[in-house]
Fold this protein.
Amino acid sequence: MINTDTIDKTAFSVAKITDPSEVCDFWLSCSPHERLRVVEYLRRLNYGDYRPTDRLQRVLEVVQITK
């Protein structure tokens, strides 16, 4: 599990996207549950703590197609 309280915000590196990376190996070693927790954490950092379903409302209508 990733401890989000101790992120080093001064670390930075530049690499080509085609270069092999240890980051991919790290994420593949995490469970899907851990990956989803990090995605949710990043979503809250970017968009706040609101519930996405409050703003995302869809209206669907079922239509009978006659031949």
